[in-house]
Design goal:
One of its GO terms (molecular function) is DNA binding. By secondary structure, this protein is of the alpha/beta class. The protein has two domains: 153 residues, Rossmann fold, CATH 3.40.50; 67 residues, Orthogonal Bundle (Arc Repressor Mutant, subunit A), CATH 1.10.10.10. The protein contains ten helices and six strands. Strands 2-1-3-4-5-6 form a six-stranded parallel β-sheet, with helices on both faces. Strand 5, helix 5 and strand 6 form a beta-alpha-beta unit. Helix 2 runs parallel beside helix 3, helix 7 packs across helix 10 and helix 8 crosses helix 9. The protein is elongated.
């Protein structure tokens, strides 16, 4: 069964849905808040914001803290990740549902996210309407994955799997990209030419359907956090 088909324990309703935003970039939180304000029919109420998973948990520990119904969190932040936050909330506040925003479309990554307690998973490159659909699903007591991600989970496309879709050399390059190394540094570490490294980077972007080097680096880092790039 796909994780998006598993119902949650919270029944739908028309009472305000309390939201906490967790992202280490204030501008990103501002953008999400504005998008939520454009959905008045969902009765959303942003009751708290945090710059990290640790900040979010500290706020929730305070006496009299308003416990949100939904936490919208980036997956990759300084300190603990959004998935670690989801796992902790599943233990401490089982009624709180976590909606993750991520660039990673890997089937193993998404499946593990749901196993850790995530209730909704939306790609950062998904259409704007996906956030609306995700929150609607959560209000109705369902879990959710973006349409494009859901299709990939069903089809198990090799182009989004790590490491099976990649050659061992491409996986090596991706691991070093995740460490923030330049093409020159990667070439030195792997004893190859810079041109060969650039060829591998281009191949990685094509296989993983990433637009540029910045998204490749973010993708690699998020995968590394889940040990999906462990040597095999």
């Amino acid at each position: 069964m796909n994780p998006s088909d598993v119902p949650s324990d919270n029944p739908p309703g028309n009472t305000p849905m309390r939201i906490m935003l967790v992202d280490d970039h204030p501008l990103v939180r501002d953008g999400i808040r504005l998008r939520l304000q454009a959905m008045p029919h969902l009765h959303l109420d942003v009751v708290a914001e945090a710059a990290s998973a640790e900040d979010a948990l500290e706020q929730l520990r305070q006496p009299g803290a308003t416990i949100p119904d939904v936490v919208i969190s980036d997956v990759r932040m300084s300190g603990s990740s959004g998935l670690e936050l989801a796992a902790t909330l599943a233990r401490l506040h089982s009624g709180v549902r976590v909606l993750i925003l991520s660039m990673v479309h890997d089937t193993e990554f998404v499946s593990r996210a749901f196993a850790l307690g995530v209730a909704a998973y939306v790609g950062k490159d998904a259409p704007a309407g996906d956030l609306l659909h995700a929150l609607t699903a959560l209000r109705e007591g369902r879990r959710y994955t973006s349409t494009s991600l859901d299709a990939r989970l069903h089809q198990h496309q090799l182009s989004t799997r790590i490491p099976s879709a990649l050659t061992s050399r491409e996986a090596d390059v991706l691991r070093l990209v995740a460490q923030g190394k330049t093409s020159k540094a990667i070439a030195e570490a792997l004893h190859m030419s810079v041109r060969t490294v650039e060829t591998h980077r281009l191949s990685l972007r094509r296989k993983l359907r990433l637009d540029n080097s910045a998204t490749l680096a973010q993708y690699a880092t998020e995968l590394t956090e889940l040990a999906l790039l462990a040597r095999h």
